[in-house]
Amino acid sequence: MTTQRTATLSVEGKTAELPVVSGTVGPDVIDIRSLYAKTGMFTFDPGFMSTAACKSAITYIDGDKGELLYRGYPIEQLAVNCDFLEVAYLIKNGELPNKTEYDEFTTRVKRHTMVHEQLSRFFQGFRRDAHPMAVLVGVVGALSAFYHDSLDINNPEHRMISGIRLIAKLPTIVAMTYKYGIGQPFMYPRNDLSYTANFMYMMFGTPCEKYEPNPVLVRALDRILILHADHEQNASTSTVRLAGSSGANPFACISSGIACLWGPAHGGANEACLNMLEQIGDVSHVNEYIKRAKDKNDSFKLMGFGHRVYKNFDPRAKLMQQTCQEVLGELGLENDRLFKLAIALEKIALEDDYFVSKKLYPNVDFYSGIVQRALGIPTQLFTGIFALARTVGWMAQWTEMIADPEQKIGRPRQLFTGAQTRDVVPLGQR
Ligand code: SDX
Questions:
Q1: Is 307 among the residues known to form the active site?
Q2: What is the 272 CA–ligand 1 centroid distance (Å)?
Protein backbone atom coordinates (compact mmCIF):
# COMPACT_ATOMS: atom_id res chain seq x y z
CA MET A 1 0.00 0.00 0.00
CA THR A 2 1.52 3.37 -0.91
CA THR A 3 1.67 5.88 1.95
CA GLN A 4 0.33 9.38 1.26
CA ARG A 5 3.30 11.77 1.03
CA THR A 6 2.72 15.03 2.87
CA ALA A 7 4.34 18.44 3.32
CA THR A 8 4.17 19.91 6.82
CA LEU A 9 3.62 23.63 7.16
CA SER A 10 3.95 25.08 10.64
CA VAL A 11 3.19 28.73 11.27
CA GLU A 12 2.58 30.50 14.59
CA GLY A 13 1.64 27.32 16.40
CA LYS A 14 -0.62 26.01 13.65
CA THR A 15 0.43 22.96 11.63
CA ALA A 16 -1.00 21.79 8.32
CA GLU A 17 -0.20 18.39 6.84
CA LEU A 18 -0.66 18.93 3.11
CA PRO A 19 -0.79 16.05 0.58
CA VAL A 20 2.03 15.88 -2.00
CA VAL A 21 0.78 14.67 -5.38
CA SER A 22 2.78 13.47 -8.42
CA GLY A 23 1.81 13.67 -12.09
CA THR A 24 3.14 11.40 -14.82
CA VAL A 25 6.04 13.80 -15.40
CA GLY A 26 7.14 17.20 -14.11
CA PRO A 27 7.17 18.84 -10.66
CA ASP A 28 5.11 17.34 -7.85
CA VAL A 29 2.46 19.58 -6.30
CA ILE A 30 1.49 20.35 -2.73
CA ASP A 31 -2.30 20.25 -2.48
CA ILE A 32 -3.08 23.38 -0.45
CA ARG A 33 -6.87 23.30 -0.76
CA SER A 34 -7.18 22.74 3.02
CA LEU A 35 -4.57 25.38 3.95
CA TYR A 36 -6.98 28.23 4.78
CA ALA A 37 -9.20 25.93 6.88
CA LYS A 38 -6.16 24.63 8.79
CA THR A 39 -4.18 27.87 9.22
CA GLY A 40 -6.50 30.78 8.42
CA MET A 41 -3.89 31.88 5.86
CA PHE A 42 -3.81 32.09 2.05
CA THR A 43 -0.85 31.45 -0.23
CA PHE A 44 0.38 34.50 -2.15
CA ASP A 45 1.53 33.98 -5.75
CA PRO A 46 0.85 36.92 -8.13
CA GLY A 47 1.52 35.77 -11.70
CA PHE A 48 1.20 32.15 -10.53
CA MET A 49 4.98 31.63 -10.53
CA SER A 50 4.67 28.52 -8.31
CA THR A 51 1.01 27.58 -8.70
CA ALA A 52 -0.60 24.71 -10.59
CA ALA A 53 -4.19 25.78 -11.24
CA CYS A 54 -5.49 22.45 -12.53
CA LYS A 55 -4.72 18.90 -13.58
CA SER A 56 -4.25 18.43 -17.31
CA ALA A 57 -3.24 15.62 -19.67
CA ILE A 58 -3.00 17.70 -22.84
CA THR A 59 0.37 19.49 -23.13
CA TYR A 60 3.60 19.22 -21.18
CA ILE A 61 6.54 21.63 -21.29
CA ASP A 62 9.96 21.00 -19.79
CA GLY A 63 11.38 24.52 -19.61
CA ASP A 64 14.91 23.41 -18.73
CA LYS A 65 15.19 20.82 -21.50
CA GLY A 66 13.31 22.92 -24.06
CA GLU A 67 10.75 20.14 -24.57
CA LEU A 68 7.15 20.57 -25.73
CA LEU A 69 4.83 17.52 -25.90
CA TYR A 70 1.25 17.46 -27.18
CA ARG A 71 -0.35 14.37 -25.58
CA GLY A 72 3.16 12.91 -25.16
CA TYR A 73 4.35 13.50 -28.75
CA PRO A 74 7.36 15.86 -29.21
CA ILE A 75 6.51 18.98 -31.20
CA GLU A 76 9.50 18.33 -33.50
CA GLN A 77 7.95 15.02 -34.66
CA LEU A 78 4.42 16.39 -34.98
CA ALA A 79 5.60 19.38 -37.02
CA VAL A 80 7.28 17.08 -39.55
CA ASN A 81 4.93 14.05 -39.66
CA CYS A 82 1.43 15.54 -39.26
CA ASP A 83 -0.81 18.29 -40.56
CA PHE A 84 -2.68 20.76 -38.39
CA LEU A 85 -6.02 18.89 -38.35
CA GLU A 86 -4.24 15.66 -37.35
CA VAL A 87 -2.68 17.56 -34.43
CA ALA A 88 -6.04 19.18 -33.66
CA TYR A 89 -7.60 15.69 -33.47
CA LEU A 90 -4.75 14.55 -31.18
CA ILE A 91 -5.03 17.53 -28.82
CA LYS A 92 -8.83 17.22 -28.74
CA ASN A 93 -9.13 13.42 -28.37
CA GLY A 94 -5.83 12.34 -26.83
CA GLU A 95 -4.69 10.01 -29.65
CA LEU A 96 -3.52 10.51 -33.23
CA PRO A 97 -6.27 9.57 -35.70
CA ASN A 98 -6.04 6.59 -38.05
CA LYS A 99 -6.92 7.25 -41.70
CA THR A 100 -10.65 6.63 -41.21
CA GLU A 101 -10.81 8.83 -38.11
CA TYR A 102 -8.79 11.52 -39.90
CA ASP A 103 -11.08 11.52 -42.94
CA GLU A 104 -14.21 11.63 -40.76
CA PHE A 105 -12.81 14.51 -38.68
CA THR A 106 -11.68 16.59 -41.65
CA THR A 107 -15.01 16.03 -43.40
CA ARG A 108 -16.88 17.10 -40.25
CA VAL A 109 -14.76 20.24 -39.89
CA LYS A 110 -15.26 21.11 -43.58
CA ARG A 111 -19.04 20.86 -43.12
CA HIS A 112 -18.86 23.79 -40.67
CA THR A 113 -16.46 26.22 -42.37
CA MET A 114 -19.24 28.60 -43.49
CA VAL A 115 -20.59 31.20 -41.04
CA HIS A 116 -24.23 32.30 -40.76
CA GLU A 117 -24.86 34.84 -43.51
CA GLN A 118 -26.10 37.32 -40.86
CA LEU A 119 -22.68 37.19 -39.16
CA SER A 120 -21.09 39.07 -42.06
CA ARG A 121 -23.19 42.11 -41.05
CA PHE A 122 -21.30 42.38 -37.75
CA PHE A 123 -18.25 43.53 -39.67
CA GLN A 124 -20.08 46.59 -41.05
CA GLY A 125 -20.11 48.11 -37.57
CA PHE A 126 -16.30 48.28 -37.40
CA ARG A 127 -14.09 50.98 -38.95
CA ARG A 128 -12.14 49.52 -41.85
CA ASP A 129 -8.91 50.26 -39.96
CA ALA A 130 -10.05 48.54 -36.75
CA HIS A 131 -7.36 46.27 -35.30
CA PRO A 132 -8.22 42.70 -36.40
CA MET A 133 -8.05 41.46 -32.80
CA ALA A 134 -10.78 43.95 -31.80
CA VAL A 135 -12.93 42.53 -34.61
CA LEU A 136 -12.18 38.92 -33.67
CA VAL A 137 -13.06 39.45 -30.00
CA GLY A 138 -16.41 40.86 -31.09
CA VAL A 139 -17.34 38.51 -33.90
CA VAL A 140 -16.24 35.28 -32.16
CA GLY A 141 -18.09 36.29 -29.01
CA ALA A 142 -21.16 37.00 -31.14
CA LEU A 143 -21.15 33.42 -32.49
CA SER A 144 -22.99 32.37 -29.30
CA ALA A 145 -25.97 34.38 -30.59
CA PHE A 146 -26.34 31.91 -33.47
CA TYR A 147 -26.14 28.57 -31.68
CA HIS A 148 -28.87 28.47 -29.05
CA ASP A 149 -29.25 24.78 -30.01
CA SER A 150 -25.87 23.82 -28.52
CA LEU A 151 -24.99 26.01 -25.53
CA ASP A 152 -25.59 23.42 -22.79
CA ILE A 153 -22.01 22.95 -21.58
CA ASN A 154 -23.03 19.84 -19.63
CA ASN A 155 -24.16 18.10 -22.83
CA PRO A 156 -21.16 16.26 -24.38
CA GLU A 157 -22.72 16.52 -27.88
CA HIS A 158 -23.08 20.29 -27.47
CA ARG A 159 -19.44 20.53 -26.32
CA MET A 160 -18.36 18.45 -29.31
CA ILE A 161 -20.28 20.43 -31.95
CA SER A 162 -19.18 23.78 -30.43
CA GLY A 163 -15.56 22.65 -30.67
CA ILE A 164 -15.96 21.59 -34.31
CA ARG A 165 -17.74 24.86 -35.15
CA LEU A 166 -14.98 26.99 -33.59
CA ILE A 167 -12.11 25.05 -35.20
CA ALA A 168 -13.91 25.21 -38.56
CA LYS A 169 -15.06 28.84 -38.44
CA LEU A 170 -12.04 30.66 -37.01
CA PRO A 171 -10.16 30.54 -40.37
CA THR A 172 -13.26 31.89 -42.15
CA ILE A 173 -13.69 34.69 -39.59
CA VAL A 174 -9.98 35.62 -39.58
CA ALA A 175 -9.98 35.76 -43.39
CA MET A 176 -13.21 37.83 -43.34
CA THR A 177 -11.55 40.23 -40.88
CA TYR A 178 -8.64 40.65 -43.28
CA LYS A 179 -10.89 41.11 -46.34
CA TYR A 180 -13.04 43.66 -44.50
CA GLY A 181 -9.93 45.66 -43.60
CA ILE A 182 -8.74 45.87 -47.21
CA GLY A 183 -12.18 46.43 -48.71
CA GLN A 184 -12.27 43.19 -50.72
CA PRO A 185 -15.29 40.85 -50.85
CA PHE A 186 -15.44 37.93 -48.43
CA MET A 187 -14.46 34.61 -50.04
CA TYR A 188 -16.63 31.59 -49.25
CA PRO A 189 -14.74 28.50 -48.03
CA ARG A 190 -13.74 25.84 -50.55
CA ASN A 191 -14.25 22.33 -49.21
CA ASP A 192 -12.14 20.80 -51.98
CA LEU A 193 -9.06 22.37 -50.35
CA SER A 194 -7.24 21.31 -47.19
CA TYR A 195 -7.88 23.28 -43.98
CA THR A 196 -4.85 25.54 -44.38
CA ALA A 197 -5.01 25.82 -48.20
CA ASN A 198 -8.65 26.90 -47.79
CA PHE A 199 -7.59 29.55 -45.27
CA MET A 200 -5.01 30.93 -47.70
CA TYR A 201 -7.63 30.86 -50.48
CA MET A 202 -10.09 32.86 -48.34
CA MET A 203 -7.30 35.29 -47.45
CA PHE A 204 -5.67 35.90 -50.82
CA GLY A 205 -8.20 34.69 -53.41
CA THR A 206 -10.59 37.08 -55.17
CA PRO A 207 -13.76 36.47 -57.25
CA CYS A 208 -11.98 37.93 -60.28
CA GLU A 209 -9.41 35.23 -60.96
CA LYS A 210 -8.37 31.67 -60.16
CA TYR A 211 -6.17 31.38 -57.05
CA GLU A 212 -4.36 28.17 -56.15
CA PRO A 213 -2.26 28.40 -52.95
CA ASN A 214 1.43 27.50 -53.27
CA PRO A 215 1.76 24.04 -51.61
CA VAL A 216 5.15 24.91 -50.06
CA LEU A 217 3.67 28.01 -48.44
CA VAL A 218 0.56 26.07 -47.36
CA ARG A 219 2.78 23.48 -45.65
CA ALA A 220 4.76 26.24 -43.94
CA LEU A 221 1.63 27.96 -42.62
CA ASP A 222 0.18 24.59 -41.57
CA ARG A 223 3.35 23.99 -39.51
CA ILE A 224 3.04 27.46 -37.96
CA LEU A 225 -0.49 26.53 -36.86
CA ILE A 226 0.83 23.28 -35.32
CA LEU A 227 3.48 25.20 -33.35
CA HIS A 228 0.80 27.52 -31.90
CA ALA A 229 -1.91 24.93 -31.17
CA ASP A 230 -1.53 24.59 -27.39
CA HIS A 231 0.87 25.43 -24.59
CA GLU A 232 -0.22 24.31 -21.11
CA GLN A 233 -1.74 26.92 -18.79
CA ASN A 234 -0.53 30.14 -20.45
CA ALA A 235 -2.32 33.42 -19.80
CA SER A 236 -4.99 33.08 -22.51
CA THR A 237 -5.68 29.40 -21.78
CA SER A 238 -6.04 30.23 -18.09
CA THR A 239 -8.44 33.01 -19.10
CA VAL A 240 -10.53 30.54 -21.12
CA ARG A 241 -10.57 28.10 -18.18
CA LEU A 242 -11.54 30.78 -15.68
CA ALA A 243 -14.32 32.09 -17.92
CA GLY A 244 -15.49 28.51 -18.50
CA SER A 245 -15.50 27.74 -14.77
CA SER A 246 -18.48 30.09 -14.37
CA GLY A 247 -20.46 28.07 -16.93
CA ALA A 248 -20.09 30.65 -19.73
CA ASN A 249 -20.64 29.22 -23.22
CA PRO A 250 -17.57 28.17 -25.25
CA PHE A 251 -17.88 30.98 -27.81
CA ALA A 252 -17.77 33.61 -25.06
CA CYS A 253 -14.84 31.77 -23.43
CA ILE A 254 -12.83 31.65 -26.66
CA SER A 255 -13.54 35.35 -27.17
CA SER A 256 -12.05 36.01 -23.70
CA GLY A 257 -8.97 33.98 -24.70
CA ILE A 258 -8.57 36.09 -27.86
CA ALA A 259 -8.75 39.25 -25.76
CA CYS A 260 -6.00 38.02 -23.43
CA LEU A 261 -3.82 36.72 -26.28
CA TRP A 262 -3.83 40.22 -27.82
CA GLY A 263 -1.46 41.56 -25.16
CA PRO A 264 2.15 42.27 -26.35
CA ALA A 265 3.54 40.24 -23.44
CA HIS A 266 1.67 37.21 -24.83
CA GLY A 267 0.37 36.50 -28.33
CA GLY A 268 0.71 40.12 -29.41
CA ALA A 269 4.49 39.73 -29.20
CA ASN A 270 4.79 38.55 -32.82
CA GLU A 271 3.29 41.81 -34.07
CA ALA A 272 5.36 43.77 -31.53
CA CYS A 273 8.51 41.87 -32.53
CA LEU A 274 8.14 42.69 -36.22
CA ASN A 275 7.48 46.34 -35.39
CA MET A 276 10.57 46.26 -33.17
CA LEU A 277 12.72 44.86 -36.01
CA GLU A 278 11.39 47.58 -38.33
CA GLN A 279 12.23 50.16 -35.60
CA ILE A 280 15.79 48.81 -35.19
CA GLY A 281 16.07 48.89 -38.96
CA ASP A 282 19.68 47.85 -39.35
CA VAL A 283 22.27 45.62 -37.67
CA SER A 284 24.31 48.73 -36.86
CA HIS A 285 21.56 49.79 -34.42
CA VAL A 286 21.29 46.43 -32.63
CA ASN A 287 23.69 47.26 -29.80
CA GLU A 288 21.75 50.44 -28.98
CA TYR A 289 18.52 48.44 -28.55
CA ILE A 290 20.23 45.64 -26.62
CA LYS A 291 21.46 48.36 -24.24
CA ARG A 292 17.92 49.71 -23.88
CA ALA A 293 16.52 46.21 -23.24
CA LYS A 294 19.00 45.82 -20.36
CA ASP A 295 18.25 49.24 -18.88
CA LYS A 296 15.92 48.93 -15.87
CA ASN A 297 14.79 52.52 -16.41
CA ASP A 298 13.81 51.84 -20.01
CA SER A 299 10.51 50.03 -20.60
CA PHE A 300 11.83 48.65 -23.90
CA LYS A 301 11.98 44.86 -23.95
CA LEU A 302 13.36 42.64 -26.71
CA MET A 303 10.05 41.36 -28.08
CA GLY A 304 10.10 37.68 -28.97
CA PHE A 305 12.64 37.02 -26.24
CA GLY A 306 12.10 35.40 -22.84
CA HIS A 307 9.51 33.01 -21.50
CA ARG A 308 7.98 32.16 -18.14
CA VAL A 309 8.63 28.45 -18.58
CA TYR A 310 11.39 27.99 -21.16
CA LYS A 311 14.68 28.73 -19.42
CA ASN A 312 16.55 27.23 -22.32
CA PHE A 313 15.54 27.46 -25.99
CA ASP A 314 11.87 27.41 -27.03
CA PRO A 315 11.67 24.37 -29.37
CA ARG A 316 9.06 26.23 -31.42
CA ALA A 317 11.51 29.07 -32.13
CA LYS A 318 13.98 26.64 -33.74
CA LEU A 319 11.23 25.11 -35.90
CA MET A 320 9.93 28.57 -36.75
CA GLN A 321 13.40 29.69 -37.86
CA GLN A 322 13.66 26.63 -40.13
CA THR A 323 10.21 27.35 -41.57
CA CYS A 324 11.25 30.94 -42.10
CA GLN A 325 14.27 29.83 -44.13
CA GLU A 326 12.10 27.46 -46.22
CA VAL A 327 9.53 30.14 -47.03
CA LEU A 328 12.10 32.84 -47.79
CA GLY A 329 13.95 30.34 -50.00
CA GLU A 330 10.75 29.39 -51.87
CA LEU A 331 10.03 33.07 -52.46
CA GLY A 332 13.60 33.98 -53.42
CA LEU A 333 13.88 36.24 -50.36
CA GLU A 334 16.93 34.58 -48.77
CA ASN A 335 18.41 38.03 -48.23
CA ASP A 336 15.30 39.33 -46.49
CA ARG A 337 16.47 42.38 -44.53
CA LEU A 338 14.45 41.67 -41.38
CA PHE A 339 15.37 37.99 -41.31
CA LYS A 340 19.06 38.80 -41.47
CA LEU A 341 18.52 41.46 -38.78
CA ALA A 342 16.72 38.91 -36.56
CA ILE A 343 19.54 36.37 -36.98
CA ALA A 344 22.10 39.05 -36.05
CA LEU A 345 20.02 40.27 -33.10
CA GLU A 346 19.62 36.71 -31.75
CA LYS A 347 23.39 36.07 -32.05
CA ILE A 348 24.38 39.33 -30.32
CA ALA A 349 21.78 38.89 -27.54
CA LEU A 350 22.80 35.29 -26.83
CA GLU A 351 26.43 36.37 -26.47
CA ASP A 352 25.40 39.01 -23.91
CA ASP A 353 25.57 38.01 -20.24
CA TYR A 354 22.33 39.84 -19.40
CA PHE A 355 20.28 37.54 -21.62
CA VAL A 356 22.29 34.43 -20.81
CA SER A 357 22.19 35.01 -17.03
CA LYS A 358 18.43 35.73 -17.11
CA LYS A 359 17.91 32.74 -19.44
CA LEU A 360 16.21 34.86 -22.09
CA TYR A 361 16.07 33.03 -25.42
CA PRO A 362 14.00 33.58 -28.57
CA ASN A 363 10.44 32.33 -28.13
CA VAL A 364 7.79 31.27 -30.63
CA ASP A 365 7.07 34.89 -31.53
CA PHE A 366 10.59 35.87 -32.54
CA TYR A 367 10.57 34.48 -36.09
CA SER A 368 6.84 33.95 -36.63
CA GLY A 369 6.29 37.55 -37.70
CA ILE A 370 9.00 37.42 -40.36
CA VAL A 371 7.64 34.25 -41.95
CA GLN A 372 4.02 35.45 -41.81
CA ARG A 373 5.07 38.76 -43.41
CA ALA A 374 6.77 36.78 -46.19
CA LEU A 375 3.51 34.81 -46.65
CA GLY A 376 1.73 38.11 -47.26
CA ILE A 377 -0.06 38.25 -43.90
CA PRO A 378 -0.31 41.84 -42.58
CA THR A 379 1.45 42.52 -39.27
CA GLN A 380 -1.73 43.35 -37.38
CA LEU A 381 -3.16 39.94 -38.30
CA PHE A 382 -0.26 37.86 -36.87
CA THR A 383 -1.97 37.44 -33.50
CA GLY A 384 -5.21 36.58 -35.27
CA ILE A 385 -3.40 33.63 -36.87
CA PHE A 386 -2.09 32.71 -33.42
CA ALA A 387 -5.69 32.79 -32.10
CA LEU A 388 -6.88 30.65 -35.03
CA ALA A 389 -4.37 27.95 -34.11
CA ARG A 390 -4.74 28.26 -30.33
CA THR A 391 -8.52 27.81 -30.57
CA VAL A 392 -7.73 24.08 -30.84
CA GLY A 393 -5.87 24.14 -27.52
CA TRP A 394 -8.34 26.46 -25.84
CA MET A 395 -11.26 24.16 -26.76
CA ALA A 396 -9.42 21.05 -25.56
CA GLN A 397 -8.48 22.74 -22.27
CA TRP A 398 -12.02 24.09 -21.82
CA THR A 399 -13.50 20.63 -22.47
CA GLU A 400 -11.05 19.03 -20.03
CA MET A 401 -11.96 21.61 -17.39
CA ILE A 402 -15.73 21.13 -17.83
CA ALA A 403 -15.33 17.33 -17.59
CA ASP A 404 -13.12 17.54 -14.44
CA PRO A 405 -15.22 16.37 -11.44
CA GLU A 406 -12.99 18.40 -9.10
CA GLN A 407 -13.50 21.61 -11.08
CA LYS A 408 -15.08 24.53 -9.18
CA ILE A 409 -15.66 28.13 -10.21
CA GLY A 410 -12.30 29.93 -10.10
CA ARG A 411 -12.35 32.52 -7.34
CA PRO A 412 -8.87 33.58 -6.09
CA ARG A 413 -8.54 35.48 -2.76
CA GLN A 414 -6.20 38.44 -2.04
CA LEU A 415 -3.82 40.06 0.40
CA PHE A 416 -5.85 43.15 1.32
CA THR A 417 -3.78 46.30 1.77
CA GLY A 418 -6.54 48.91 1.66
CA ALA A 419 -8.29 51.01 4.32
CA GLN A 420 -9.71 49.36 7.43
CA THR A 421 -13.37 49.93 8.46
CA ARG A 422 -14.19 53.65 8.87
CA ASP A 423 -17.37 55.78 9.03
CA VAL A 424 -18.69 57.97 6.23
CA VAL A 425 -18.59 61.72 6.99
CA PRO A 426 -21.56 63.44 5.22
CA LEU A 427 -20.53 65.55 2.24
CA GLY A 428 -21.34 68.86 3.94
CA GLN A 429 -18.93 68.03 6.75
CA ARG A 430 -15.96 66.83 4.59
C1 SDX B 1 3.99 33.81 -25.52
O2 SDX B 1 3.13 31.34 -21.34
C3 SDX B 1 3.19 30.85 -22.56
O4 SDX B 1 3.32 29.67 -22.80
C5 SDX B 1 3.05 31.91 -23.64
C6 SDX B 1 3.29 31.43 -25.07
C7 SDX B 1 2.20 30.48 -25.54
O8 SDX B 1 2.46 29.69 -26.46
O9 SDX B 1 1.05 30.60 -25.01
O10 SDX B 1 4.54 30.78 -25.15
C11 SDX B 1 3.29 32.61 -26.06
O12 SDX B 1 3.36 34.64 -24.93
C13 SDX B 1 5.49 33.90 -25.64
C14 SDX B 1 6.08 35.17 -24.95
C15 SDX B 1 5.91 36.36 -25.89
N16 SDX B 1 6.24 37.62 -25.18
C17 SDX B 1 7.33 38.33 -25.53
O18 SDX B 1 8.18 37.98 -26.35
C19 SDX B 1 7.42 39.69 -24.83
C20 SDX B 1 8.83 39.89 -24.28
N21 SDX B 1 9.03 38.92 -23.17
C22 SDX B 1 8.80 39.38 -21.83
O23 SDX B 1 7.76 40.31 -21.68
C24 SDX B 1 8.85 38.24 -20.81
O25 SDX B 1 9.97 37.50 -21.10
C26 SDX B 1 7.66 37.30 -20.67
C27 SDX B 1 6.39 38.03 -20.45
C28 SDX B 1 7.53 36.44 -21.89
C29 SDX B 1 7.94 36.40 -19.46
O30 SDX B 1 7.93 37.21 -18.35
P31 SDX B 1 8.22 36.63 -16.87
O32 SDX B 1 8.31 35.16 -16.87
O33 SDX B 1 7.28 37.28 -15.93
O34 SDX B 1 9.67 37.09 -16.60
P35 SDX B 1 10.06 38.52 -16.08
O36 SDX B 1 9.30 39.57 -16.84
O37 SDX B 1 10.00 38.52 -14.60
O38 SDX B 1 11.58 38.60 -16.58
C39 SDX B 1 12.65 38.10 -15.80
C40 SDX B 1 13.75 39.12 -15.98
C41 SDX B 1 13.31 40.54 -15.63
O42 SDX B 1 14.47 41.24 -15.19
P43 SDX B 1 14.70 41.36 -13.56
O44 SDX B 1 13.49 42.06 -12.98
O45 SDX B 1 14.84 39.92 -13.04
O46 SDX B 1 15.97 42.14 -13.44
O47 SDX B 1 14.14 39.17 -17.37
C48 SDX B 1 13.86 40.46 -17.89
C49 SDX B 1 12.88 41.13 -16.95
O50 SDX B 1 13.04 42.55 -16.98
N51 SDX B 1 13.25 40.24 -19.20
C52 SDX B 1 13.59 40.88 -20.31
C53 SDX B 1 12.79 40.31 -21.32
N54 SDX B 1 12.02 39.36 -20.80
C55 SDX B 1 12.30 39.32 -19.49
N56 SDX B 1 14.47 41.88 -20.55
C57 SDX B 1 14.56 42.31 -21.83
N58 SDX B 1 13.83 41.81 -22.86
C59 SDX B 1 12.93 40.80 -22.63
N60 SDX B 1 12.24 40.31 -23.64
A1: yes
A2: 13
Cβ atoms of 57 and 22 within 8 Å: the answer is no
* Ligand 1 first shell, C-beta below 6 A: 231, 234, 265-267, 269, 293, 301-309, 358, 360, 363-365
Catalytic residue from among 131, 228, 231, 307: 307
The pTM score is 0.95
Q: Are 277 and 342 in contact (CB under 8 A)?
A: yes
SS3 323: helix
Helix (H, G, I), strand (E, B) or coil at 418: coil
Q: Is the dihedral of CA 408, 410, 415, 420 positive or negative?
A: negative
Nearest C-alpha neighbor of 159 from the set 249, 89, 55, 59: 249
Ligand 1 centroid–CA 278 distance in Å is 21
Q: Give the nearest ligand 1 atom to 306 CA.
A: 25
Show contacts of 20-27: CB within 8 Å, 24+ apart: 23/55, 25/60, 25/62, 26/60, 26/62
Which residues are 68's β-sheet partners? 61
Contact 257, 387 (CB under 8 A): yes
DSSP, residue by residue, 254-278: HHHHHHHHTSTTTTTHHHHHHHHHH
Closest of 106, 175, 177 to residue 139, by C-alpha: 177
Tens digits of residue pLDDT in 302-353: 999 999 999 988 999 999 999 999 999 999 998 999 999 999 999 999 999 9
SS3 73: strand
